[in-house]
Design goal:
By secondary structure, the chain is an all-alpha fold. It has 16 helices and no strands. 30% of the residues are buried.
């Protein structure tokens, strides 16, 4: 595995990657991990060869086992249809995911592995599973322009109104006109109007504002932070929830509260390109040059975001 300090040094760059780029990066790390495990196993077996020869069969008894979710997602990422099929027959859940909530169905919708997608759906995979950034398999297939997978997911009741953490629905992410037309046709067939679209986009923020109002009315602290130091203002800033942020600031939310990485809410707003939130926070005294533990500034994060958005996507053709 990679050295801990090496992983830490990579964190800023990884945080700015698109979902697809992070998946590729994780696959690369996984391959490196397997290679090092194999090398360590080979070396250990060589050192113990004489001693093991005295045992029955002369075989080493040392084994390395990966968790089910790791082996299952790795097999899916290799497009190994038969191995995935065997794992499902052996009782593996089709909804196993990694620490970021990524399922095999997400992965295969990105990589355009149609046979495994069909196998997973037939095995009961959740077509509306959300990862940590609220991307569903339909978001993945739509952004990559995999029309046949988009059609398949919709046929199996994929949620056309699913909103990811950037506020995007699957149709927002289509760069392919044919795929976009397919999704919009499905939306029309389901009676989805512009009013329903806007209601779905606003639902999460409305729920957050309701929770904030309850905190205020009960006299609770709006500046409370979770174990990673994230505050409600961090969340509102990252997601572009302007009304929620205004409500928090009205009730004395701290604009300079830092999370465990030294990020203020302005870092989050800049990182995710939430311009209205950047303007609001700066108007309330937030510093565009405030430094995180890794010397990141909101201004620098925003500039990096603009560069990354100008680069092509990395979906597999």
């Amino acid at each position: 595995m990679a050295d801990h300090l090496e992983l830490l040094s990579e964190m800023p760059a990884v945080s700015r990657m698109s979902t697809q780029e992070r998946l590729r990066h994780a696959q690369k790390r996984r391959g490196q991990q397997l290679k090092k495990w194999a090398q360590a196993e080979k070396e250990a077996s060589g050192k113990k060869a004489k001693g093991q020869a005295k045992k029955a069969g002369g075989k080493p008894d040392h084994r390395i086992f990966f968790p089910q979710n790791v082996t299952f997602l790795e097999a899916a990422a290799r497009n190994d249809l038969e191995e995935v099929r065997q794992m499902l027959q052996d009782g593996f859940s089709p909804n196993l995911c990694n620490e970021d909530g990524l399922t095999a169905l997400h992965q295969c919708c990105i990589d355009d592995f149609e046979e495994i997608v069909r196998l997973l759906i037939d095995a009961g995979a959740d077509v509306n599973a959300s990862d940590s950034e609220l991307w569903t398999p339909l978001h993945a297939a739509a952004t990559c322009g995999h029309l046949h997978l988009v059609s398949l997911l919709i046929k199996h009741n994929a949620n056309l109104l699913a909103v990811n953490s950037d506020g995007n629905m699957p149709y927002d992410l289509c760069e392919d006109d044919v795929t976009l037309d397919n999704i919009e046709t499905a939306m029309a067939e389901q009676g989805i109007t512009q009013e329903k679209i806007e209601e779905s986009r606003a639902a999460t923020e409305r729920k957050m504002m309701s929770d904030i109002q309850q905190l205020v009315e009960s006299g609770s602290e709006v500046n409370a932070q979770d174990e990673s130091g994230t505050s409600l203002l961090h969340i509102a800033a990252a997601n572009g929830y302007l009304d929620a942020a205004e409500l928090l600031l009205e009730h004395k939310a701290a604009v300079n509260a830092k999370d465990c990485d030294g990020w203020e809410a302005l870092h989050a707003a800049a990182c995710w390109g939430q311009i209205q939130l950047v303007e609001l926070l700066v108007a309330h005294g937030a510093d565009l040059n405030a430094k995180s533990l890794l010397d990141e500034t909101p201004l620098g994060l925003y500039e990096d975001l603009m560069v990354s958005r100008s680069e092509p996507r990395t979906c597999r053709e």
